[in-house]
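A student in our group prepared the protein record below, which I am reviewing. Thanks in advance; the entry in question is below.
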Amino acid sequence: MTRLTGGDTSLLRRINSAVTLEAMRGGTPTTLTQLVGDTGLSRPTVEGVIEDLVAGGLVAEVDQEACTPRGRGQRGRPARHFRFRAEAGHTLGIEIGTHGCRALLADLTGRTLDSYERPIPDATPAEERLTLVRGTVAELLRRSGVARDSLWAVGVGTPGVVDAEGVVQLGTALPGWTGLDLAGRLRRSFRCPVFVENDANLAAIGEHWQGAARGMGDVVFVLAGLSPGAGSLIDGRLHRGFGGAAGEIGALHLLGQEDAPEQLLAPGDEPLTPLDEDAVSRLLLDARAGDSTALALRGRFLNRLVRDVAALVVAIDPRIVVVGGWAAGLDGVLEPLRDRLSRACLRPPEVTLTELGAEAIATGALRLAVDHVEQRLFQVEQP
């Protein structure tokens, strides 16, 4: 809570409003008397704050009879009840992936209302991809009957190294992505703040919020693919590194000038195209069918993935490692990870598959938007 240093009445009103909304954020209807007890404010102050919040559309009075049904012998008017209007605005989480775009629409608390996904070819140029992303959002809003002006914040996940301003400093997975001011370009389509972050980082945030890492402070999420990446949370906070490149384990092979990941799964001399997941899927199916060549290639790739993850785990010492991406479907991916980590680490972490699956990145992006809303509603910074 900000401590007042003078007679700034507008600041005092903002603090009282934030304290009152914080007490109501759970969504359960509450009375003025309960709010006085929960906030420590006087009743006249609470009454004034509630009046302002109702006028602003953030709080609504609920049906008194529904909250306090009259019992036999009950006298007097029932207490007035109020609730926080989570539907007063909306948040949006977007994943811009190599093969498509996924968007999640939620209320101000982050409760998902609807989603929409659109495939996008991996070779699509940057300008066309941005147009398709905007179209994905437009279709989601149209289907949901939500006005664009009701959006309070938008979070976006993308492959690549992203700086704090939302500029993609390095993005080899998407054509024309390196150097793209993605946040700046998308802000032209919205009248609200837009936040951009690396996809693996957001997947870690998503799993920590609603997935396999709920309630755990130290987390590593592995976005496994031909060029794997990872996101890390330390004490529940995202670790981005100085330039936003923390967790880029797909580049570790360069240290020893070893085969690139796409070469490890190549059945011949020609490496796979890094984005050719269809070819990877065919190879994995062959491995499941017992094809000896495919089994050997899969084993070689898994060994590299396990080594890369182990390097990060030794540095971070997480409580849990969550595995997502297409490698989440690999037969036996967890056991090699557990075995190698048990031998490489003083304290092996728990290893599990993603609970959120394909929605992990968009969920983390949505959490970025919700964080902004919560800061706006429930926190006050003194000028």
